[in-house]
Amino acid sequence: MMVTGKALLAGVMGWPIGHSRSPLLHGYWLNQYGIDGAYVPLAVPPDRIEQALRALPALGFRGCNVTVPHKEAAFRLVDRLDDSARRIGAVNTVLVLPDGSLEGRNTDGYGFWQNLQAGASAGWDVGSGAAVVLGAGGAARAVAVALLDAGAPGIRLLNRTRARAEELTSDLADPRLQVLDWEDRAEALQGAALLVNTTTQGMQGQPPLQIDLSSLPGTALVTDIVYTPLITPLLQAATDRGNAIVDGLGMLLHQARPGFHAWFGTDPQVTDALRRHVLGPV
Ligand SMILES: NC(=O)c1ccc[n+]([C@@H]2O[C@H](COP(=O)([O-])OP(=O)(O)OC[C@H]3O[C@@H](n4cnc5c(N)ncnc54)[C@H](OP(=O)(O)O)[C@@H]3O)[C@@H](O)[C@H]2O)c1
After folding, report:
1. Where are the beta strands (DSSP E) in 165-271?
2. Which CATH class is domain 109-247?
3. 26, 62, 71, 141: the active-site residue
């Protein structure tokens, strides 16, 4: 990696930050494209996020990513928001503008959709049936916005805590969003073109997601945004019954592209070698 006195600077703010794969990911691209730049982990406690974001222009940073638990705070703190951040209600990418003000963007929905498109077979069509989205947390908001923008004819949203799903649909105010009871998740799969898990179930250290897939059409695509493990119990069960799957790692890789492009001036590629690199040592 080349880092001179003129290096372009960016990083990721989180608390804790040691588990983040973003430095590995951006570091790989900086190296691959021979860019004089650095992308560093920034451990910022919640009571210092405002101070840290405001310091970016003074330190000469081009911007940063923002991760747990700062995405909602960054949404409130930046000077302007792009359309995705405004609709999702959270910021994951910050740009320092030439006048020193901060623009907040959200690229999680973009990453989700790019990953789905890259992983789905050519014959799969988001418009061919409803999408079933499990979960209504921060990530579900990004997924719902992406699917609405991609032309999903309907989204069935199911969350353990129904009120949170209702809040999400009320915020997005799109008649294609429908809330169903968590207990009805097996029946909700009838006629679906897509099943998305955005809950934490199936993640390392968490129990598998409990769902009976027998009503899911064989043509439906199944994706899990959890990527540790890469093949979650849900993705394994879907594969076992013949459904096509897309794992969640690509969402992480693709959401990083717009930030990298804005800070370092190159639109980077997501490749198998990058997947192996990011999965590797962390
Ligand atoms: N691939 C990527 O790039 C990417 C990006 C973002 C997030 N993620 C992953 O996506 C997952 C969710 O992230 P998030 O930020 O949306 O988290 P979050 O805001 O904390 O939401 C967690 C979701 O999981 C549900 N949940 C938790 N325990 C459950 C249980 N026992 N049974 C059923 N549902 C349960 C919650 O339901 P309640 O509302 O009822 O609590 C909620 O819908 C995490 O694993 C995260 O690592 C991946």
Report:
1. 177-181, 194-197, 221-224, 244-246
2. alpha beta
3. 71
